[in-house]
Write a structure and sequence with these properties.
184 residues, four-stranded antiparallel beta sheet, 33% strand, alpha+beta, single chain
Length: 184
Amino acid sequence: PYGAGGEAGDEAELEAEAADALGGRAPVHWVGLSRAGYLLAYSHEDATLACFDLHGRLLVARNVGATQHAFAFSQDGLTVVHGGRDRIVTARNLPGLEVRMVIGRSGELKLPINLAALAMASKANDPSVTTRPKRFPAPVRSLTFAAGEHVLLVGLADGRVEAFSTDSEYLQRRIRERLHVIGF
């Protein structure tokens, strides 16, 4: 649907087609395909995150509030995490894009990637699911999962990288191992 020409003049046409996919609101600044087969597109201009099926049918579009800079999918492709100017990381389920968890600098709300845990928190209407934690000191610029989703690394605009673990013992063990390897 976005053309196969690849010629220099196609860029404006492709941008217009991408904007049309988001309802004509704004150009697409990030796009990702989850392992579960959901296509996500995000626009900075109106802070809209949209979820499409593989046939290009819009499933849902949500305003995420602030400009987002970083996105990462869970291994199963049923969760997306994102962060940006609002200085928090938000986890959303796919395809509905409902907020499942929000974490900030203090890590008081850890990110359970275990889908069963996410579903239980949602079904129980756990108020901590939507509680906003303390914000990071700078905007979130990058996100990645490591160690089989035991760790979420959060890169900040001020040059810091913070790590969050769903299993604090795992993280402590890995840090001790790495410090030993480098001579500490």
